[in-house]
Amino acid sequence: MLKRIAVVFTVIMVVIAMALPVMASENDRKRFLPAGAVDAEALIGPPPARDSAEFKTQMDIVLWLQKTRTPEQVAFAEQPLDLERFAPIISASLVEVDGRLLKETLDGVIDEVRMDYDAVKGVFDEPRPFQVDERVQPVGDARPVAAYPSGHAIRATVYGTLLSGIFPEHEAEIMDLAQQVGYGRVVAGVHYPVDVTAGQKLGAAYAEVVAEQPAYIDAVARITAAGPQS
Fold it and tell me: Is the residue at 69 inside a domain?
């Protein structure tokens, strides 16, 4: 009997030992945005009801911007959103930092932010403008997934806020571009204005939390101190 107990105990310890690396890996992936650090639902609240006057105003804005958008605005809205989107602004300063580590760090941040806001989108599960009204003709990335809050506005705000902290001399231009990226999604017919404003609010909250994390502070210190990598 004691021998059998010893065998079972050994098996349990082996299973636990095998699980520890996986658990550590999960924690590593959340080193920039701890779970529950931002109460997103409470922060942004629900979007306007689709039978409300406020929602009608939101749709009217989408349709008006569709009617008046220019080819240049469409081209702007169709550009992908990543670190390279901000490169024309910070290119001169990139030679003074470790650009490779900058990209690696921000990619990690954005991955964690996306995991969090995808869950928030699922809670509200609001359809896109083109799913609600057939008059809306979207351009660019027009996937029929939940609209509220805008993921582009969130990510653009996170990028803008964190990049402004690293390159403060370019803050005004960086944040202006971040805002334009968000509102470009309304011009594209894939979001309502309220999706964007909620996304910007949530993105700012995410960025504030990220900027306080030891892993991020350490990464920024290495980004700004190590210089460019060959």
Answer: yes
143: domain CATH number is: 1.20.144.10
What pTM does this model have?
0.85
Phi/psi at 139 (nearest 5 deg)? Answer: -130, 160
Confirm if 170 and 90 have CB atoms less than 8 A apart: yes
Would you say residue 67 lies in a domain?
yes
pLDDT digits (tens, 9 = 90+) for 7-31: 333 333 333 333 444 434 444 457 8
Q: pLDDT per residue over 44-94, tens digit each?
A: 999 999 999 999 999 999 999 999 999 999 999 999 999 999 999 999 888
SS3 content of the chain, % helix, strand, coil (to 5): 75, 0, 25
Do 149 and 117 touch, CB atoms closer than 8 A?
yes
Cα 53 to the chain's mean position, in Å?
29
**Radius of gyration (C-alpha) of the chain in whole angstroms:** 22
Per residue, the 3-state secondary structure of 106-124, as one string, reads: HHHHHHHHHHHHHHHHHHH
Q: Determine the structural domain holding residue 128 and report its residue range.
A: 35-226
Number of separate domains in the chain: 1
